[in-house]
Each structure stands twice: as C-alpha cells, then as structure tokens.
Write a structure and sequence with these properties.
heterodimer, A: 66 residues, mainly beta, Ubiquitin-like (UB roll), globular, B: 256 residues, alpha/beta, five-stranded parallel beta sheet, three-stranded parallel beta sheet, 8 helices, 10 strands, 16% strand
C-alpha cells in the first residue's frame, strides 16, 4: 500500500490504522495532530481509523515561530 | 497601578506577547522568555519530520505561559483553517493567531482571505486573533466577524522597521475605543514598542526583535520596560504638540 505522509510517499505493509502507522514510522504520539485526507482525526479515533491505499496524511507538531 | 490586560476573558499582567522562532539556541530563548515577563507565546504548526527523531519543542516553554499556535506559512483560507484545526487538536486550545499571507517577499497579509478564514474559525468556536494590514475598515470587519481582538502590523514581519504608519494606529485606536488592538510584527527596537503603546495599542506581539538581538535576554528586558513605559505614557495623556515654544520657567520676575 502506498500512502502519502507529510508530502512524501511511503510503501507500507501490515499497517491498518493511523495508530499502527505512527508506530511503523516511529513517530511521536504526544502533542501531535493528524489529518487524513484533509479531515482532522481525533486522537481517540487513531486506533480505529483505517488507512487505505493513496491516502494523504499530515502529522504535525509545534516548532518555533513568530 | 493595576492595569490588567484582558483578552477573550483571560487576564494577563504583561502586555508583551513573544515568539519562539529564530533564536540561536533554546537556552537563549528560554532566558529571554523568562526575563520578558511575557505570559503568552506563539508557536508554529509544522510537519513532523519522518526521517529523524524529534523532541517536543513545547517542553522548552514555561508551562505557565499561554500557548498561542499560529497559522504562519498559510497562503489561503482553507490552509489556515486546516492548520488551526490541527493546532486545536494537538494542544486542546481554541486560541489561534490567524495569519494568511499574500506574498512571499513582503509576507504582507491577505486581508480578504484572513477575514474569510476568521469567519469559519469563529463559527467553529476558535478564539481568533487575526494578523492583518493596519486598516481601520478591515479591523471593523474582523471584529464584526467575532474576533476578540485585532492584530495590525507595524511593519512587515521580521523587518524591524518600527511603526510605519502611526496615523493608522491612532485612527484605529480613536475609532475603535473598546476594541483590543495588539500590534503584531515589525517592531525592531524598544522605542518602536513604546511608540506603538503610546499610540494606544493594548499589547504587542514580537519575535525577531528579541530573537535576533545581539543579547536576546537583555533585549527582552528592554522590550518589557518599553511596553510598560509606552502603556503608562498612553494612560497618562500626552501634552499637546505645539509648533512654537512654550516657556517652562516664569518669564515674569526674570532679572533684566
């Protein structure tokens, strides 16, 4: 399955949910937010939200800015 | 003298709001934040890097400070709205500094798109603090849209040029006496901050002036004092400007 995450394409196997995706890519889970195909997915739903081929996902955190 | 700054129902002692970008080091940022006395800091929303481990930037902020996420880098209303929604989800805060930029060279705001995004976000329950060009009519529209404050620029972001159009700020203050006006962007030195406050701004948001100073902590202290001085000067009521002199010492009784 190909997904597009933060503007990059990734080939993933055995990843069915957003939570599993974060684990597979070793991404942080605290104080981050996820958008799946332009819809924010609330944290309690990460375990049950399925990812599909060609999904566009954004995972964001906070950085310094003005 | 008690002179609290209330914004969207929250009370602040400090009228200085600061950024978190461009510091040479996190230690320097933390030192500047501490001495600034600021109670609110703004942070940017950004993609998590996929190829390396990152620590949470938020761990470097004083937990007592109100975090104000911003939509920096957004060039249309839809992007700004999406960014605000992500920030709310990640931080569990309704507060958002709304920036919709119109052009990458000047980073001047696109007022039309800012208003469009503000309407959507207010309807979704956000506390929207919009950055916009220092224009009275746009200020009115943003306030009518439900923004609890407006944030006119003094000069382009990161320019350090100071208040380029003091008349606009003065007119905005006089015509919108009850509005909360926060000058956002363009301050370079403490006197710029003092001038903005003397013109009646309720608070100032700045980043680069402190972060790029030779000594960020000293500049943060200077900015804190300048904001306080300008505020007190505004509240005190300035003397009228006169074209000609007005003697300070009595003329009568001077020896001849």
């Amino acid at each position: 399955m190909t997904i597009f995450i933060n503007g990059e394409s990734r080939e993933l196997k055995d990843v069915s949910t957003l939570a599993a995706l974060l684990d597979a890519l070793d991404l942080p889970k605290q104080r981050v937010a996820i958008e799946l195909n332009k819809q924010v997915i609330r944290k309690p739903d990460w375990e049950t939200t399925e990812v599909s081929n060609n999904d566009k996902i954004e995972v964001v955190h906070f950085v310094g800015g003005g | 003298m008690s002179d609290k700054f209330t914004l969207a129902g929250k009370e602040f002692t400090s009228r200085l709001i600061i950024g978190t970008g461009k510091y040479r080091s996190l230690d320097e940022m933390k030192a500047a934040h501490t001495v600034s006395g600021a109670e609110m800091v703004t942070v940017a929303v950004n993609r998590v890097p996929l190829d390396r481990k990152t620590e949470s930037f938020l761990d470097h902020l004083n937990p007592s400070m109100q975090i104000l996420p911003n939509t920096a880098g957004c060039y249309d209303a839809d992007h700004a709205v999406r960014t605000a929604r992500l920030a709310r989800e990640a931080l569990d805060t309704e507060w958002i500094k709304l920036e919709v930029i119109g052009d990458p060279v000047t980073l001047l705001p696109d007022n039309e798109k800012t208003l469009e995004a503000a309407k959507v976000l207010v309807a979704e329950g956000f506390i929207v603090l919009p950055y916009f060009t220092d224009d009275l009519i746009m200020a009115k529209k943003l306030l009518d849209a439900g923004c609890p404050a407006v944030m006119p620029l003094a000069a382009p972001i990161g320019s350090g040029m100071g208040v380029q159009n003091p008349s606009n700020l003065r007119i905005m203050r006089e015509q919108l006496p009850d509005a909360t006006i926060i000058v956002d962007a363009g301050v370079g030195v403490p006197s710029d901050a003092a001038i903005a406050m003397e013109l009646g701004a309720d608070a100032i948001l700045m980043n680069t002036a402190i972060a790029e100073a030779g000594n960020a902590a000293h500049m943060a202290t200077a900015m804190k004092l300048a904001v306080q001085a300008g505020r007190l000067g505004y509240l005190s009521g300035r003397m009228p400007k006169r074209l000609y002199a007005s003697a300070s010492s009595p003329i009568a009784g001077a020896i001849r």
